[in-house]
Design brief:
alpha/beta; five-stranded antiparallel β-sheet; seven-stranded mixed β-sheet; FAD/NAD(P)-binding domain; Pyr_OxRdtase_I_AS; nucleotide-binding; Enolase-like, domain 1; globular; flavoprotein; Pyr_nucl-diS_OxRdtase_dimer
Amino acid sequence: MSVTETDLCVIGGGSGGLSVAAGAVQMGARVVLIEGHKMGGDCLNYGCVPSKALIAAANAAHAPQQPNAFGVTPTTPDVSYQGAMEHVGRVIETIAPHDSVERFEGLGVDVRQGYAKFVSPEEVEVDGHRIRARRFVIATGSSPFVPPIPGLESVPFLTNESLFDLRKRPQHLIVIGGGPIGIEMAQAHRRLGSDVTVLEGATALSADDPDIAKVALDAIRKEGVVIEEGALVSEVSGKSGAVTVKTKDGREFEGSDLLVAVGRKPNIDKLNLDAANVAHSEKGIDVDSALKTSNRRVYAIGDVTGGMQFTHAAGYQAGIVVRSAVLGLPSKARTDHIPWATYTSPEIAQVGLTEAQAREKYKDKLKVARADFSGQDRAIAQDDTRGFIKVMVVGGRPVGASIVGPHASDLIGIWALAIANKLKMSAVTSTVLPYPTLGEINKRVAGNYFSPMIFESALLKRVVKWVQRFLP
């Protein structure tokens, strides 16, 4: 059996793995990249890219139907579900060359297509060939978790890996799972003309601040999406086009199609990690703060570690690994500055601690500043004033920010910057932004933090009076 020796072997051609491979090879390292399925991974083919493309199509279908203050008469557009899904396909095709085998081979990466398995702590085998590397990076991502619900094995159902293959609009989509994926796809399908019911065993959007989640969920319910919380599924039955879902409290829900969106599982089954002495569990591969596994030759990044399951988190971790594995420099990953967003309408975004988390950690040292979109001039001009922002502040520095409202996913950036660089609130208030922009709400909430200190200070008022007496 032939053996290839290399400096770095990257297993997984998703966001994290591609970032490591591209960075390392351009710095002069020898790199082998192994991908068993599609280049670009879940994000390009089944996750971030197709879901946001479908949401864009759904938003375009929804907008003309809404009463507004613009003097435009609402109309009912002719919506083609097939056309929306074809848009999704075109978006993937447009981005795919950036993640392609050809591009990475052009960079100098030795790309192998097949599933890798470890045969020793320093070797993997792929397609009858062995790769021996000084360092390995496991970036195999995650897959949809399918719960052991009775009857599910005999009823056709969708996950995010098969949803975007549809060309016929579901008449009534039942979504099991009220997390970000389930709620995003529920609203998108409602806007594209489907009836939608979401069944969540606990609380929908439970990872977010409950005040923030309520604004989004209320808006989604208002559009006609039925969201049932505390609805733990006990049994599924039926056939294609006629599905019945029962919950433990005795309720029944009928629909035409079923989407299972209850979480993710790490892709570790094919890796033979025991041969590499890599500690792992059903939650994923164990890593330390430097993203090293129990085998010091092997790193793991992204979803496969069971941590933050975001494309941008994997990309950030890739930079940590390149610094360590390629340059030999000490580097540790952190998570407090990594934001996330849910692309509903209105959007949700979060970075750092929620209010509840901050109160538990900092007690009476915490101050919370808030600003509503109802007082934001650009939001008023655009006739979308739903939502608010709140920032958790300790010692003059933000430790968390929560936003629900228009373009929340963009607005969270300034707070991610502030937390990442340990900036004070004064850095935001001193920033000059163009008027009128939605970004001004960030400056307003920072100003609201300082307002009580300035305008309610008796000492300051006495100082001002004294100064005014002596000014010419």
